[in-house]
Write a sequence for this structure.
């Protein structure tokens, strides 16, 4: 797979993704890319064109399917970013930004639940 050169995406985001790929020592040659037909909202065009992207990373057996946008190039970038997130979560969880966000949300939810229980009393 070649790195997608996309004009629709902010160059800073593309550069940040390239840096993450280099930091994780991921070879883009190992990533298998396939374009599949999309579905859902968007009318006839979305059902006829192969604008959805499926990326496979065989070493960790990760498969990502992405069809968030109508443009294939944008879906390609979004799928690659999601794949890199998943690889980072499996290989180095201590540096994963996505895991940090998840932990922060769990902590926030727990605090909110505790605050509500304290205010209204536990009704179990």
């Amino acid at each position: 797979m070649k790195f997608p050169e996309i004009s629709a995406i902010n160059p800073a985001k593309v550069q940040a993704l390239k840096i993450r790929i280099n930091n994780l020592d991921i070879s883009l040659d190992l990533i298998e890319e396939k374009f599949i037909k999309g579905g859902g909202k968007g009318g006839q065009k979305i059902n006829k064109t192969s604008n959805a992207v499926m990326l496979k990373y065989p070493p960790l057996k990760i498969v990502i399917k992405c069809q968030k946008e109508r443009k294939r190039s944008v879906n390609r970038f979004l799928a690659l970013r999601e794949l890199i997130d998943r690889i980072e979560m499996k290989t180095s969880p201590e540096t994963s930004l996505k895991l940090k966000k998840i932990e922060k949300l769990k902590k926030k939810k727990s605090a909110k639940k505790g605050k509500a229980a304290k205010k209204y009393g536990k009704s179990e």
